[in-house]
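Please fill in the sequence for the structure shown.

STRUCTURE ENCODING:
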């Protein structure tokens, strides 16, 4: 067993059974000051409480590994519910095009963007792809992410989509972080297909994809796939037990939110362009609105209207969208900072959005995302002297002392 003592503030305590936070609950954060927490040998949270009731007697020897937090914060590790980290190389050339004035849509229309990554991935061996993706996972874990969703979507033909899904599967088996896999065959129309023939190809890929994937995703947006295409793909996904997570409303008011809700999507993601109809459609649904401020920042497009969603009683999750084209970073602390600085979330709302609600958006809230007895001990221990507000405020000053994943100090 491991016991962490002298925790200045234990943040993110949630009673068992609470699945997500919505509306006013987004502003609630279970906090215990001057606390201890015990990790069981199986890696789960065994118990916690105030130091006045600490199970360890000072000076009495114990078999536990004891970690003195020296007043630091202990909080749930980040749950990054939307990433595309299996990709080959980079798109540095397009970064320069962007600096010189081209938009994301213009770069894509020239055959760059997602298709550029698809060509690169086709030329890269499966082992090399795995090595590159693994180094990104290691970087993310060091920055405090203990649960990561990873999408396919740079294959864009059956052979290369399956290559990506196998790489994600290998990551799942080899890293301590909790990994969920999403089949995003419909990320762009693959080379050599028409849109309709490619939609049919994605539908035909579903049985094989479902052997590896937990979820199905579609880029339902202007210039990519329509709500009708999405509808067909999600219906096929449902036949193979894949719940949707949708890319919607990044480039235009696309109808993606509505089609996602219709199919009980676990999440609808991006949402930079949403009207009141989208908020109405989400009310009362099981779908988590997920916002990706890293791509708003990088592409210079609007930030999603998180506060209005919360005022309407909805929950919000934040994720990194780590990918080579619209958000080349997987730093969830920076995502929190963008949530606070650009979307005017409070630090408490932002923390809920990157922990419990992120876990919900990737179907992992029973296992992780909060300080709850029985969940995995996926934790961030800060350096002494930190407060929650300082994490997004001084957003570049290192604050992590240790990351625990599945109970193990990394
Ligand atoms: O979530 N919007 C679609 N897909 C990614 C970008 C992928 C890429 O440009 O490589 C996103 O932003
Ligand atoms: Fe994405």
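FILLED IN BY: designer on duty
SEQUENCE:
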């Amino acid at each position: 067993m491991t016991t962490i003592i002298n925790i200045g503030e234990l943040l993110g305590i949630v009673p068992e059974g609470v699945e997500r936070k919505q509306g006013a609950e987004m502003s609630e954060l279970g906090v215990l000051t001057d606390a201890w927490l015990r990790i069981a040998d199986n890696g789960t949270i065994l118990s916690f409480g105030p130091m006045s009731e600490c199970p360890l007697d000072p000076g009495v020897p114990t078999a536990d590994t004891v970690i003195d937090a020296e007043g630091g914060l202990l909080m749930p590790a980040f749950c990054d519910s939307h990433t595309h980290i299996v990709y080959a190389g980079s798109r540095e050339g397009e970064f320069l095009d962007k600096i010189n004035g081209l938009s994301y849509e213009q770069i894509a229309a020239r055959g760059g963007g997602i298709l550029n990554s698809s060509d690169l991935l086709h030329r890269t061996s499966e082992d090399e792809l795995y090595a590159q993706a693994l180094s990104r996972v290691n970087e993310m874990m060091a920055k405090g992410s203990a649960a990561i969703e990873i999408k396919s979507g740079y294959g864009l033909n059956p052979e290369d989509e399956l290559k990506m899904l196998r790489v994600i599967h290998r990551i799942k088996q080899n890293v301590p972080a909790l990994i969920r896999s999403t089949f995003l065959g419909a990320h762009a129309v693959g080379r050599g297909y028409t849109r309709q023939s490619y939609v049919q190809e994605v539908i035909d890929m579903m049985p094989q994809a479902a052997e590896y994937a937990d979820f199905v995703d579609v880029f339902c947006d202007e210039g990519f796939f329509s709500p009708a295409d999405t509808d067909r793909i999600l219906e096929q996904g449902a036949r193979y037990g894949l719940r949707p997570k949708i890319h919607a409303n990044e480039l235009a008011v696309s109808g993606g939110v509505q089609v996602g809700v219709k199919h009980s999507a676990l999440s609808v993601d991006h949402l930079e362009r949403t009207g009141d109809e989208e908020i109405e459609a989400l009310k009362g649904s099981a779908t988590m609105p997920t916002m990706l401020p890293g791509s708003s920042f990088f592409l210079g497009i609007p930030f999603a209207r998180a506060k209005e969603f919360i005022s309407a009683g909805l929950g919000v999750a934040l994720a990194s969208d780590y990918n080579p084209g619209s958000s080349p970073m997987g730093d969830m602390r920076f995502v929190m900072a963008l949530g606070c600085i650009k979307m005017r979330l409070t630090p408490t709302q932002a923390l809920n959005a990157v922990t419990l609600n992120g876990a919900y958006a990737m179907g992992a809230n029973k296992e992780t995302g909060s300080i709850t007895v029985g969940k995995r001990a996926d934790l961030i221990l800060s350096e002494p002297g930190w407060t929650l507000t300082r994490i997004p405020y001084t957003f570049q000053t290192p604050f992590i002392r240790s990351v625990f994943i599945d109970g193990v100090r990394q």
